[in-house]
Amino acid sequence: MTLSICVVGAGPRGTAVLERIAASAPLLAAGRPVDVHLVDPYPPGGGHVWQVDQPGHLLMNTVGADATLFTDDSVRCEGPAADGPSLYEWARSAAAGHPDASVRAEAAGMRPWSHPTRRFQGHYLAWFFERVRAGLAPEVRLHEHRTRAVSLTDLEDGRQLVALEDGSGPLTVDGVVLALGHTDVWMSPSQHGLAEFAARNGLFYGPPANPLDADLDAVPEGEPLLVSGLGMNFFDYMSLLTAGRGGRFVPVDGGLRYEPSGREPVFYAGSRRGVPYQARGDYGAMPPSFPARYFDDGAVARLRAAGPADFRRDAWPLIAKETAYVYYSTLLRERPEACAMDGFLTAFDALAWNDPAMAALVESAFPDAADRLDFHALDRPLDGMSFTDGDSPHDVVVGLLRTDLTKARNAPRDPLKRALTALGASRGRVRRLVAHGGLTGESHRRDLDGWFRGFAASLSSGPPVTRIAELLALADAGLVTFVGADMRVRADPDRRAFVAGSDGSFAAGGLLEAHLPPPDLRTTADPLLGRLRETGAARPYVIPTPDGPDYETGGLDVTASPFHVIDASGRPHPRRFAVGIPIESVHWGTAIGAKPRSNAVLLSQADAVARAALLAGITTEEHHAAR
């Protein structure tokens, strides 16, 4: 009798699950043939996000040596390891003979610390998939379905019936793994109002979306465009609407000059913080790693044991001190004259971050306030500015960008860039701390989702330094104007335009919301997830707060590993599993990819659900007999 598994989603996570099924099937399938059904309208490997035909000017914000899908021996998993090349190693070997000339050209110039194009990553993931398919054991048969799964129901014998959008099937399987990535969500009432206003007045409105899915052909050429959001999606839109419309960035005097095509819009851009994400440091080598001193694995274990934790009270002081230690140790190395006392680091080490004596120590050791690390100023750099002295928000933001560009290019010696690299590294330990209710619900809502997620991303997960240089070139060309912090956009019926600014001084015939909608089971437009929610077969994850309000997140509720889907009554389903983006908030940072030699969470989770799905259709007696 054949064992069958359906994997819904063929992007990196679904492909990793497939590889893990292939690795463990000979060991777990009790001698039975295994049929694997891979369901996704997009090609397997890259899936939707990493399509190989996307524009070559869209970049990863991960460096090539930090991307893999292979389970090296650092990955803690029960299935057999399957080592293989990282993206960079593939570029130096297999990609050199690739039939696509653009792949060969990019591979030839790649360094371990290069930021590859997204389509190059797509080719790597497609190669990985083909390698998995070619290496399948004879008893493992792969079936690809280039469509969407739209419903999932139980049969009387416990098997699962998966209905497909194209009318083929349905599939009868023993286990189902939901490995969907980002899915569309329904527009909110306010977004519907903006869309209707645009339709009535012949304007452009782009709701939150993957930039590759946005109808950018409808953005008018040469006209003002309000852009809300200055994170990573903003940089994608910036590239698609400039280089993607025929403009050119030309090197000149150590910087860039933009040569317009005349088809670009004129950007009026802002956000809550009012400034773009900071550039990643350009070290001319792999970014450094810093041993954890305060927020280390032991600290995470202690907080988990005593939990649930309050992030601001329990975790942030350790993260802040960790980051500040790297900052001040680098500053003392590069400019020792900035410090007015001996033994600063010893005194720093002895004090808690939130001890009033710590602030006094830093103030006395560094008389110049510009030398002190100021987290609030990093988070809200425009706070307190009245702009009454002739400077505009635009002028201030451009100045901050020029400073950021200088620091990023001098990252090996710059205290701030090195500190922010350490801050970014702390997020892996944050992931372990907050998983499955590691924080109270109120702290998760207020501190993690409401602050730290965006704060850490804006400082440590920004674009390659080239993107900041390009943004400055566009500002110099008059094609980008920054409107300031706390940007609010409204529809103005009298002017038949979208307007922003406290006095409505920025008006445009188009509005682009430049951010990705967060995964949310409550508002998902994905037919399968929506159907599971509507029928009570799945529920949003709720995080309790002792003696306080619970927090209903948008994440799909699952058990601890191997992540059985939990229904509305609280029962885990024995044959349904989920991994990756849909379970954000049960876990955190699920969009983070797999890094070699790092016990990558993506891969350990893929292994766990793959093995559980294999065992879902095997009786205990069969399993023991096979072993």
UniProtKB/TrEMBL annotation:
Q: Ranges for the FAD-dependent urate hydroxylase HpyO/Asp monooxygenase CreE-like FAD/NAD(P)-binding domain?
A: 7-182
What SUPFAM superfamilies does this protein map onto? FAD/NAD(P)-binding domain
Name of a matching Pfam family: NAD_binding_9
What name appears for this protein in its UniProt entry? Answer: FAD/NAD(P)-binding protein
Originating species: Actinomadura vinacea
